[in-house]
């Protein structure tokens, strides 16, 4: 029997180098080998040269006693007993502190200024415009130095402190205020707060379902505020208010007791927030302007009030434009916090890549660790913001 | 990324270039003296601005005892003290700059300590200035001793031995303190001036210099205690004996000249008719002491003629003829009861 002569294209078994799959695999393996080879070469070369020049290498130094003091430590640290490894952690926490404070403040200021720029009020819009143009066009380092020396020089000496309520003192050394001292049994209060937060989230979810089902809205805001404040307060009172305050007192040169907010921290925080807020304000403005005018008009024709239009219609759509750009501003802020060293705020660069580096002389190890930290922080922040962005992005159905 | 598959050649070429780039520049260490001679310039790391030690004057010329030491080495090696390229370095940058070969010599008020000498691939060639750490306070605090500083805030330059001595001193005397660490010494002075700290601490010679930067230099006092030994001296890379000896003998020549009374003014006369055999050997009239080091025999003559002897350097930059008006103290010659002692040229 003869089959009809239909020529079925046979899968070519031509030479291997003609096969695109094989070819791309070979190239990728080659590329990977080259990159690994370069890294291995650099590491080997560096190690050999350091060895030849009698420069100590390795990470042993992290266990040696540091012996210098640090002006702000969020974790236990003493120049007497702590190690260089500990200075790394102290610096890291200080960097995280100023970055977190900066991100929160920059976001709030940025949003307000961005909205103000679009305000129909002539004066408000011009003031916001002036803010943006002034602060984003002056180098950040100058702004840090300005705030530091402006803040410092305008404040009185410890003995002439501005005092408030006999517990808060403001002077050239910073803001000194009463510090809470936790007594046994205090932990019930934060637990109550956690319960209250979970309760609030549940409340919001249920209220939303209720609204979807019936079209009625619950007074969610007052209810959740009552829950968030009332429950911890009640527990605190029931457990017998297990909290004492250490009140600062002037003794000798300085205040004893209480806690101190360093002027370096305040100056750096202000400079970073104000500078970054100028950029965020522009992002907010461009994000809002990117929402077509028809959306506002549509909302208005449904007689939604202005505030609700902004919150429920404009901003959710503007967010999609804003989030990726705001993310890079956050990353900039974190990296810019390393300018702290100019005014003596003990961040990671000042403490670890500064003093520790200079005392141990182990530049390669210290710089590698420092860079790895900034890289990790930035990648984590990006990942979180990408997650948020994915949630905010347009759900195409 | 699709790019890897579509354009592998571009990637291959890029990585090849990178590989090439890492292999090309590899500075060889060892013969610093030959390198300096063939370059015709000495690259010298100095402080980024410390009156009396190294700071640019109103005409942009570098001035100071550390700077003059660089010039003396250039005079010895190249016969011309102007053939120096100065690299201003912060305390944090200095060792890396020397280790990486960016400078040939570090003459930057650097304290000679065991860890710096032994674990960083560096060698100290001598002591140009014996110093000690001091503390400066405002007069109106009414304090006369460092022992009364319990609880004080202290401004200090980051990454210096000063920072460690400070911690040691307060611990040894069972006192509390707050350190405020700045990156540069200028900033420590500004912080002190603004009242951020009660105390400014540094090497006492530096305090004298920083005092001049304050808005009211007469309102402060330097406390009598010296809380540490700070022998400041030039540093070179470890493993280059020849270069280390050139630097070390430059210092001895400066000291020997002062001891013999040879100055930049009378050096010609002294060379033509040396008073003692020592002078004749030092100034190259007798023997080949310069050639033994790989220099010309008039190496010391060039130093003294063009830069001066140690006493001239001292008086001009930090001593009586300078705004700092420091006493010679331990920096006097051994023959005057000080610690400075030049090894004999013979």
UniProtKB/TrEMBL annotation, chain A:
Q: Give the family this protein belongs to, as stated in its UniProt record.
A: Belongs to the binding-protein-dependent transport system permease family. HisMQ subfamily.
Q: Which PROSITE patterns does this entry report, sorted A to Z? A: ABC_TM1
Which species does this protein come from?
Kushneria avicenniae
Q: What is this protein called?
A: Amino acid ABC transporter membrane protein 1, PAAT family
Q: Which Pfam families match?
A: BPD_transp_1 (PF00528)
Name a single GO biological process: amino acid transport
- InterPro entries cross-referenced by the UniProt entry: AA_ABC_transptr_permease_3TM, ArtM/GltK/GlnP/TcyL/YhdX-like, MetI-like, MetI-like_sf
Give the superkingdom in one word: Bacteria
Which GO molecular-function terms appear in the entry? Answer: transmembrane transporter activity
* CDD domains in the record: TM_PBP2
Q: Which residues form a coiled coil?
A: none
Task: Spell out the GO cellular component terms annotated for this protein, sorted alphabetically and separated by semicolons.
Answer: ATP-binding cassette (ABC) transporter complex
Transmembrane regions listed in the UniProt entry: 21-43, 88-113, 134-155, 185-206, 218-245, 265-284, 339-357, 369-388
Give a yes or no for keyword Hydrolase in this entry: no
Q: Could you tell me which residue ranges the ABC transmembrane type-1 domain spans? A: 92-385
Does this UniProt record's set of keywords contain Transmembrane helix?
A: yes
Q: Which UniProt keywords apply?
A: Amino-acid transport, Cell membrane, Membrane, Transmembrane, Transmembrane helix, Transport
Membrane topology of this protein: Multi-pass membrane protein
Which cell locations does it reside in? Cell inner membrane; Cell membrane
UniProtKB/TrEMBL annotation, chain B:
- Residues annotated as domain Solute-binding protein family 3/N-terminal: 41-270
Q: Which domain of life is it from?
A: Bacteria
Q: Which SMART domains match?
A: PBPb
Query: GO biological process: what's one of them?
Result: amino acid transport
Q: Where is the signal peptide?
A: 1-30
Q: Which UniProt keywords apply?
A: Signal, Transport
Q: Which SUPFAM superfamilies does the record cross-reference, listed alphabetically?
A: Periplasmic binding protein-like II
Write out the biased-composition intervals (Basic and acidic residues): 268-284
Q: Which family does it belong to?
A: Belongs to the bacterial solute-binding protein 3 family.
UniProt name for this protein: Amino acid ABC transporter substrate-binding protein, PAAT family
Q: Which organism is it from?
A: Kushneria avicenniae
- Give the classification, highest ranks: Bacteria, Pseudomonadati, Pseudomonadota, Gammaproteobacteria, Oceanospirillales
């Amino acid at each position: 029997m003869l089959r009809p002569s239909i020529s079925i294209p046979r899968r070519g078994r031509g030479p291997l180098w003609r096969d695109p799959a094989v070819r791309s695999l070979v190239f990728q393996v080659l590329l990977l080998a080259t990159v690994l080879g370069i890294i291995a070469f650099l590491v080997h070369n560096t190690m050999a040269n350091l060895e030849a020049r009698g420069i100590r290498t390795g990470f042993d130094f992290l266990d040696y006693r540091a012996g210098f003091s640090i002006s702000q430590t969020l974790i236990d640290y003493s120049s007497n007993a702590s190690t260089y490894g500990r200075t790394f952690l102290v610096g890291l926490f200080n960097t995280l502190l100023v970055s977190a404070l900066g991100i929160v403040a920059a976001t709030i200021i940025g949003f307000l200024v961005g909205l103000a720029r679009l305000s129909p009020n002539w004066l408000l819009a011009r003031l916001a415009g002036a803010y943006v143009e002034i602060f984003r066009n002056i180098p950040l380092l100058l702004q840090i130095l300005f705030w530091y020396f402006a803040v410092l020089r305008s404040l009185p000496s410890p003995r002439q402190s501005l005092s408030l309520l006999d517990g808060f003192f403001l002077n050239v050394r910073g803001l000194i205020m009463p510090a809470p001292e936790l007594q046994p049994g205090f932990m019930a209060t934060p637990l109550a707060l956690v319960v209250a937060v979970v309760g609030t989230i549940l409340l919001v979810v249920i209220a939303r379902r209720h609204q979807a089902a019936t079209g009625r809205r619950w007074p969610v805001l007052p209810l959740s505020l009552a829950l968030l404040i009332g429950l911890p307060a009640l527990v605190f009172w029931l457990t017998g208010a297990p909290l004492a305050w250490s009140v600062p007192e002037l003794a000798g040169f300085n205040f004893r007791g209480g806690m101190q907010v360093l002027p370096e921290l305040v100056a750096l925080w202000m400079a970073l927030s104000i500078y970054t807020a100028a950029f965020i304000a522009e992002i907010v403005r461009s994000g809002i302007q990117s929402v077509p005018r028809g959306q506002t008009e549509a909302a208005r024709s449904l007689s939604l009030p202005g505030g609700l239009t902004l919150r429920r219609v404009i901003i959710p759509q503007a967010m999609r434009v804003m989030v990726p750009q705001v993310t890079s501003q956050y990353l900039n802020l974190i990296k810019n916090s390393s300018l702290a060293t100019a005014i003596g705020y003990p961040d990671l660069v000042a403490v670890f890549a500064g003093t520790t580096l200079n005392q141990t002389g182990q530049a390669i190890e210290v710089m590698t660790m420092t860079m790895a930290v900034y890289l990790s922080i930035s990648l984590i922040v990006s990942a979180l913001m990408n997650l948020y962005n994915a949630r905010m992005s347009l759900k195409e159905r | 990324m699709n790019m890897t598959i579509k354009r592998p050649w571009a990637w291959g070429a890029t990585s090849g270039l990178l590989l090439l780039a890492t292999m090309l520049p590899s500075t060889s260490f060892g013969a610093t003296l030959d390198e300096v001679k063939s370059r015709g310039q000495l690259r010298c790391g100095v402080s980024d601005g410390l009156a009396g030690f190294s700071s640019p004057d109103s005409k942009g010329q570098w001035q100071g005892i550390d700077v003059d030491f660089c010039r003396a080495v250039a005079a010895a090696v190249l016969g011309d003290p102007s053939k120096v390229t100065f690299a201003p370095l912060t305390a944090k940058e200095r060792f890396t700059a020397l280790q990486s070969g960016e400078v040939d010599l570090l003459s930057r008020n650097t304290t000679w300590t065991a860890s710096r000498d032994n674990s960083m691939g560096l060698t100290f060639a001598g002591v140009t200035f014996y110093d000690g750490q001091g503390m400066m306070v405002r007069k109106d605090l009414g304090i006369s001793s460092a022992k009364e500083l319990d609880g004080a805030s202290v401004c200090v330059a980051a990454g210096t031995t000063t920072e460690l001595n400070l911690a040691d001193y307060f611990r040894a005397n069972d006192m509390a303190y707050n350190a405020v660490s700045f990156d540069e010494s200028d900033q420590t002075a500004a912080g002190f001036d603004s009242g951020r700290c009660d105390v400014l601490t540094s090497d006492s010679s530096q305090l004298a210099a920083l005092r001049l930067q304050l808005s009211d230099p007469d309102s402060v006092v330097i406390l009598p205690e010296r809380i540490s030994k700070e022998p400041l001296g030039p540093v070179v890379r470890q493993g280059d004996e020849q270069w280390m000896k050139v630097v070390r003998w430059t210092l001895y020549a400066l000291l020997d000249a002062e001891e013999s009374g040879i100055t930049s003014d009378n050096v010609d006369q002294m060379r033509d008719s040396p008073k003692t055999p020592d002078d004749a050997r030092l100034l190259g009239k007798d023997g080949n002491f310069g050639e033994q080091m790989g220099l010309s025999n008039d190496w010391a003559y060039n130093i003294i003629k063009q830069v001066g002897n140690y006493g001239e350097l001292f008086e001009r930059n930090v001593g009586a003829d300078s705004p700092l008006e420091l006493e010679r103290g331990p920096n006097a010659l051994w023959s005057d009861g000080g610690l400075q002692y030049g090894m004999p040229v013979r």
